[in-house]
Amino acid sequence: MNIREDKICRILSSAVLVIVLLQPVNIDGKRTRLSLKASKTERTEARPWEEELNCETDSLRFEMLCEDIVFTGYDKPLTSARETWIVQNNTDAAIRSMRVEITYLTPEGKLLHKREADVKSAVPAGETRMVEVKSFDSQKSFYYYKSQAPRRSATPYMVKIRIVSIVIDRD
């Protein structure tokens, strides 16, 4: 192959590559998207093996259940994007998930923030599990006052966690 043929070959290869790259590409391929809608009765009907309990009801059974669920060991260091704590389930029902209200306070007791969070971790009956939720502190400027004190300037806070509702498995 001489120099002229080599140049022509390179130009043709480059032209083919440009043509291939400029071709429209169908990212979706042959995928079909369907919107499946459940009927209202299916969406609102509770499954027989789970029961949602509201811990603010007057029922003694519900109050006892909520008192038998203990939260300890809360932690959120300054640089963490997650808040963790331990849930001790002293009931005879397995917890599937729960909704908690988290209240953040200054060391003087002034309200910083209040929110509700869903805890998706399961806690079997009579067992203990560490759970986590995404932190309210997106700028990483707060730390739990019992966590390790950070080297840089940051705001300490205290926390109160209260069960709003839980989903349990029935035996």
Describe this structure as you would to a colleague.
It is a single chain. Strands 1, 4, 5, 7 and 8 form a five-stranded mixed beta sheet that branches. A three-stranded antiparallel beta sheet has the order 2-3-6. The chain is of the alpha+beta class and 171 residues long. Helix content is 19%, strand content 39%.
Give the distance, in angstroms, between the N- and C-terminal Cα atoms.
Answer: 81 Å
Q: Give the overall form.
A: elongated
Structural class: alpha+beta
Helix content: 10-25%
Low-confidence stretches: 25-36, 38-54, 56-64
Order of helices and strands: HHEHEEEEEEE
With helices defined by DSSP (H or I, 4 residues minimum), what is the helix count? 3
CATH architecture of the domain at 72-169: Sandwich
Average pLDDT taken over every residue: 77
The Rg value, from CA coordinates, equals 28 Å
Oligomer: single chain
CATH class of the domain at 72-169: Mainly Beta
CATH fold annotation of the domain at 72-169: Immunoglobulin-like
Q: Assess the beta-strand content as a share of residues.
A: 35-45%
How would you sum up the major sheet? Answer: 5 strands, mixed
Strands, count? 8
Keyword list:
three-stranded antiparallel beta sheet; single chain; five-stranded mixed beta sheet; 171 residues; 8 strands; Immunoglobulin-like; elongated; alpha+beta
